Amino acid sequence: MSRQQVEMTVNGRVHAGEVEPRLTLVDFLREDCALTGTHTGCEQGVCGACTVLVDGEPMRSCLMFAVQADGAQVTTIEGIGGGREGLTPVQQAFMDNHGLQCGYCTPGFIVTVEAFLRDTPSPSDEQIREALSGNVCRCTGYQGIIAAVRQAADQLAAEARS
Amino acid sequence: MSAQTGGAARFVGASVKRREDPRLLTGGGQFVDDVQLPGMLHAAFVRSPLASARIASIDTQAALAVPGVVAIFTGADDFPRLPPWWPSEANVPAQHPLAIEDVRFVGDPVAIVIAESRYIAEDACELVDVAYEARTPIVDYRAAGEEGAPVVHAELGTNLVAEMASPPDPALEAAFAGSDHVFKETIKSHRYAAVPMETRGFVASWNKAGGELTVHMAGQAPHVARAYFALSLGLPEHAVRVIQRDVGGGFGQKAFQARDDMAVLHAAMRIDRPLKWIEDRQENLTAATHSRHEQITIEVGVNNDGLLQAIRLDHVLDAGAYPAMPAEADPGLVAAWFPGPYKVPHFGFRNVQYYTNTTARGPYRGPWLIETTVRETMLDIVARGIGMDPAEVRRRNSIQAADQPYQLHSGIVFDRVSPAETLEQAVEMAHYAQFREEQAAARAEGRLLGIGIASYIEPTAFGGGRSMGIEAATIRIEPSGKVTCLMGLGSYGHSVETTMAQVVADELGVAFEDVTIVQGDTASAPVGGGNLGSRSAVIGGAVAGMSARKARAKILDLAGHLMEAAPDDLELVDGVVSVKGSPASSMALTEITQVAYNGADRLPEGMEPGIEETTRWSAPFVTHSNATHVCMCEVDRNTGLVKLLDYVVSEDCGVMINPMVVEGQISGGVVQGIGGALLEHIPYDADGNPLAVNFKDYLLPVADLIPEIRIGHIVTPSDTPGGHKGAGEGGTIGGVAATVNAVADALAPLGVTITEQPLSPSRLLALIEQASA
Ligand code: FES
Ligand code: FES
Q1: Ligand 2 centroid to B614 CA: how many Å?
Q2: What would the CATH number be for the domain defined by A84-161?
Q3: How many helical (H) and strand (E) elements, i.e. helices and strands, does chain A have?
Q4: N or C end of chain A, less CB within 10 A?
Q5: Nearest to A104 among B198, B672, B704 (CB)
Q6: Which UniProt keywords apply (chain A) (predicted)?
Q7: B671 to chain A: which residues are within 8 Å by CB?
Q8: ipTM score here?
Q9: pLDDT tens digits for B529-548?
Q10: What is the tens place of the pLDDT at every residue in B324-368?
Q11: CATH of domain B21-30+464-618
Q12: pTM over 0.95
């Protein structure tokens, strides 16, 4: 299969390579970029485990080919929190509220919620439930996740006011 | 808390935040698919598209010609037959990693293709040319015992797996005859699956020169897997190392390794490079195990006062083609633990299990939970039948504190359980009486509100001297004074790195931050039973505490020698040993470990250097937890959609190590129960094709379906060290029944009886239309 040149900025670093056109973005991120924090649960666009930000928008990286992200700015879970700054308010809220058990779905939830709260700073409970409903978690029963988003939203709103 | 607690309980009982979280929240988890080894190859399976067929021929030539394909193995390559997991009385067929002559279900592994990438392996799978001679399959397990039914395993000459029955009992017949009412229903459970978000997976590397096999896996019980792999592969046990770091759920499905898992390991040993196999979701939904496909015909004799007189069960189970657990387990548990939290003077049962040309039955969180689903849905049918409120029927029949120890017909004894108490707490938390008023008002407007109760007593942490009931912990006080605790657990989300550290920190008298739990690796941990059967807190917690106490005793002995004090006069608090009542006279733990590891000349006569203690403990036969669930819902008359309004759990898992973790287990379990009751289903067509093979067709509960789950606790400590009882499976066990009962209660004014799930909008609409026709 003919290979294609692809170059994208992932978490602020340029990654370039020659890939098969059929290589999915998630496989490019996990294997070519060695960023294994992004997971797959269905490879069909349903579970949300593979969610990353492409030019700031949450996308299912199992449904995109790497070549479609050519030239894009991609943010994966490795580009959110951690490091010297520690956890983001969203990640901290997940920890505080037991929003994860096995942690397999978690990167997809975190990325989804970071984008959601950026775009919807003061969400209603209903909006939170709706925003989370594109992601599947098999462990938590969603209780801790919903509570975490509430906490993070309230905290971010309070910070914005002050 | 246990009576022998060393330090004050500061961590046990507190909702300590999880150790596991920072890495998992930032993409730093290490799941099996994250393991990359130099030279690693990738595997994919060719699977049967037919439910029953003879393999006439397999042509791998075209596939082998694909650049990047390294090897293809088929049944002809003689991977040895799988040894049984357990001795069993049942009719058990030979199991080979790859189909030899016959395929017996859609998804049956026929060939394994090894290539440089997963993409290439999948391409090559398409080119493996298998000629099948199709046969008529047996798909309906209820017909599998009939004369002339196609036989799944010809060598057995029958589809019968096993059957059991209680002896004829004239007193039981007399009790039915003497009852004011006898109700009878057949209650069916549909086929669905554990569906961990991470599918199954392995990275296996065989070091031929060293004779060592290293297996990274998504599993639940590393040592149990290691023993099985060694036996299957003909290797010495110590030549196999099983590692599971982070595992993305399992819920029973990853507890036992099946044919395709073993094919991966055999293949890995025949190639000279590490091999990765990560199951895709379609494989997971078709070839990993399915669960809960069974039915029970139940007869209940009851008097006008609501008191139960007699119950008889006729239980029929679908084993699929290659059941992944001993045939006796689920029906045996149902028969032995029925009728759960209620006093029933007379009881009888029969059960029978059949092979079919479908995916294997395997364990899924509360594998025997039909016991609760059938009993609790039937109790509501009985309550409606005699015109008594379902809460009242349960109240009148519940085992009370004064009845305990209470012996069931099977000989199982309930003690230290609180079904009457959880019932009252749950009903109270649900504002039951108030809901009934709201329901009456809503019904007057034609709206369908419902409330459903389910209680159960759950056997957890099976012990009784067998390997699953034995656990060990090795505690090492490191030269630095930090604490490492090695355990044979295999967490797939259970938080044991946190909860076990809470126990150890308390029992030792050190800071929580100073304790690390190492688990999920057979090379470091003492032999243990892993995470299944709601055992980790009960058995693991007990043994971690015991080892910590031993280590603490040694620390105090040595400190006493160094400080010239009697060990009994010393205490260890926050990593400092001091004389009780005079804190000025003290030694830091690090000073003591310096002597232990680096000053043998200062040790008392006869004391070994170092501080490292192991305890291995065999748990008692079983530990019982119990709970009552209450679910409230509204059913939309026009769409058949169920809206869950509220959900309450009152539970008793004894002493909680970490209430946050316990509540997480309950909530997660409840939602799996709700999913099973309302959405999840893998139907088969008449030809044996599974009809839900991806997440578009296999519906899972998501956040907008799930109400707040409110949880109350009754704490009746068990008699095991620590007083813990299992909390892993109960949420699911009660979740199905409470949800079904809520929907059934909503539809009760229409005169509808629900005996089948899932309660999909189409099923409910049909019932509603039928009722109004
Ligand atoms: S893996 Fe992409 S949505 Fe499930
Ligand atoms: S935490 Fe396990 S799937 Fe969400």
Answers
A1: 33
A2: 1.10.150.120
A3: 5, 5
A4: C
A5: B198
A6: 2Fe-2S, Iron, Iron-sulfur, Metal-binding, Oxidoreductase
A7: 140-142
A8: 0.98
A9: 899 888 989 999 999 999 99
A10: 888 889 999 999 999 999 999 999 999 999 999 999 999 999 999
A11: 3.30.365.10
A12: yes
